[in-house]
């Protein structure tokens, strides 16, 4: 069956004469251009499994429902399109370099780009509002998916075999500034790019984020991404590796968001791991001066940046061991072996004092001078490690209070 695009436009303009079920056409070939721009028809339009050799124009049109499932066409242009209920493009095949240009749509129900949907060119839904679901399960996007500043009520599903590649100089999937009141799900999907695969900057997810990293082939931008609860489909170790190696640059916020999620869940051990890994990433990729990087390294080695104060006790024990070794090996301290150990502890530790009053040091000998100089240095280090332990432990208690 063949029908002219102008005939479809005429019937939709005269929509008062249509059945309440609207205009329904299945398996037809549409000749000429289907131009429904600025048509206001508060009835459904169903063009299921239809084909056309020219782009479908829907700019600023209004329908109660729009069903284009199985459509074969070069492209769909739908800037400012309004649909009271659902917009269906399931199984559609679009071949133009710009397959869908649909800025600022208003969809009262869901948008379906699923069930074998295939776009050879870019798909843009930026600035649109979708009250229910954006469903892209099982779809293939060869030149990127642009969802910048989108507003979605129930959720976005880039899952169940959804494959997005391309995107040119931008990310394959661009969700920057998008707000999802429900879930954002990448489960069993694939996003790939030689450069940036996924742009989630300043995305707000009202409920869970399902993001398995084995489906992301390329870099990601996560600055400003927020979500409720623990992120799903990836372990803490996978998150730590991804943030440190698969993001474009160091940013504090993704680490803070991940730590806050685990803090709210009561996972204190994971919170400390995340914070320590964040500090390593800061030292490696952050904007620190040479001295700032050196001090940062010292803090990390000695107290784990305040999250592992027990490390300072390990270093303190090492200082005491060195002090004992120096005293015993030097032969410059005159007293019994047990008293020499007590003397070494006395001069090195700020915390422990034992009876070593009978011990004397042969200060005239070179070995005695070495003992004195070394124990002074070790005493400074011991005081420093003890202070770091107390400060780190106190700070950790305050953070956990």
Summarize the structure.
It contains eight helices and 35 strands.
Explain this structure to me?
The chain has 401 residues and is α/β, with parallel strands linked by helices. Helix 2 packs parallel to helix 4 (268-285), helix 3 packs antiparallel against helix 4 and helix 6 crosses helix 7 (337-348). The longest helix has 35 residues, at 366-400. The radius of gyration is 33 Å and the shape is rod-shaped.
Biggest sheet statistics: 13 strands, parallel
> Count the strands?
35
Q: Which runs of at least 5 residues are low in confidence (pLDDT < 50)? A: none
Bulk shape: rod-shaped
Q: Helix coverage percent of residues?
A: 25-40%
> Beta-strand percentage?
15-25%
Mean pLDDT: 87
The tally of helices reads: 8
**N/C terminus separation:** 73 Å
Q: Radius of gyration in whole Å, from Cα?
A: 33 Å
Structural class: alpha/beta
Task: Supply database-style keywords.
alpha/beta, nine-stranded parallel β-sheet, 401 residues
Fold topology:
Elements: E1 2-4, H1 5-13, E2 23-26, E3 29-31, E4 40-41, E5 45-48, E6 51-52, E7 56-57, E8 62-63, E9 66-67, E10 72-73, E11 76-77, E12 82-83, E13 87-88, E14 93-94, E15 98-101, E16 106-107, E17 111-112, E18 118-119, E19 122-124, E20 129-130, E21 133-135, E22 140-141, E23 145-146, E24 151-152, E25 155-157, E26 163-164, E27 173-174, E28 179-180, E29 183-185, E30 190-199, E31 204-205, E32 209-210, E33 216-221, H2 236-245, H3 252-264, H4 268-285, H5 290-303, H6 310-330, E34 333-334, H7 337-348, E35 360-361, H8 366-400
Parallel strand pairs: 1-3, 2-5, 3-6, 4-8, 5-9, 7-11, 8-12, 9-13, 10-14, 11-15, 12-16, 13-17, 14-18, 15-19, 16-20, 17-21, 18-22, 19-23, 20-24, 21-25, 22-26, 23-27, 24-28, 25-29, 26-30, 27-30, 28-31, 29-32, 30-33
Antiparallel strand pairs: 34-35
Helix pairs in contact: 2-4, 3-4, 4-5, 6-7, 6-8
């Amino acid at each position: 069956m063949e029908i002219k695009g102008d005939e479809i436009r005429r019937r939709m303009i005269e929509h008062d004469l249509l059945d309440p079920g609207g205009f329904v056409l299945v398996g037809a070939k549409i000749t000429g251009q289907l131009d429904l721009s600025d048509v206001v028809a508060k009835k459904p339009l169903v063009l299921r499994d239809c084909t056309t050799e020219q782009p479908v124009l829907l700019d600023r049109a209004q329908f109660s429902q729009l069903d284009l499932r199985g459509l074969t066409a070069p492209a769909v242009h739908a800037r400012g399109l309004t649909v009271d209920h659902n917009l269906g493009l399931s199984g559609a095949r679009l071949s133009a370099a710009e397959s869908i240009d649909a800025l600022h749509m208003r969809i009262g129900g869901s948008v379906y780009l699923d069930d074998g949907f295939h776009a050879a060119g870019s798909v843009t839904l930026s600035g649109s509002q979708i009250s229910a679901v954006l469903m892209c399960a099982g779809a293939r996007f060869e030149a990127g998916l642009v969802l910048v500043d989108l507003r979605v009520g129930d959720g976005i599903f880039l899952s169940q075999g959804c494959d997005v590649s391309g995107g040119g100089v931008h990310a394959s999937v661009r969700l920057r500034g998008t707000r999802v009141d429900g879930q954002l799900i990448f489960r069993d999907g694939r996003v790939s790019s030689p450069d940036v695969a996924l742009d989630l900057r300043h995305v707000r997810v009202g409920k869970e984020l399902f993001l398995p990293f084995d489906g992301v082939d390329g870099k990601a931008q996560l600055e400003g991404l927020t979500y409720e609860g623990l992120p799903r489909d990836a372990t803490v170790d996978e998150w730590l590796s991804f943030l440190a190696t698969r993001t474009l640059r160091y940013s504090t916020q993704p680490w803070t968001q991940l730590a806050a999620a685990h803090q709210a869940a009561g996972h204190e051990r994971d919170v400390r791991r995340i914070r320590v890994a964040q500090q390593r990433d800061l030292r490696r990729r952050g904007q620190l001066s040479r001295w700032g990087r050196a001090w940062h390294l010292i803090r990390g080695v000695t107290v784990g940046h305040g999250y592992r104060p027990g490390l300072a006790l390990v270093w303190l024990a090492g200082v005491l061991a060195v002090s004992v070794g120096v005293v015993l090996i030097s032969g410059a301290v005159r007293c019994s072996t047990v008293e020499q150990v007590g003397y070494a502890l006395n001069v090195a530790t700020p915390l422990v004092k034992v009876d070593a009053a009978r011990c004397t040091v042969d200060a005239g000998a070179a070995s005695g001078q070495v003992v004195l100089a070394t124990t002074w240095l070790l005493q400074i280090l011991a005081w420093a490690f003890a202070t770091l332990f107390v400060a780190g432990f106190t700070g950790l208690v305050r953070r956990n209070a």
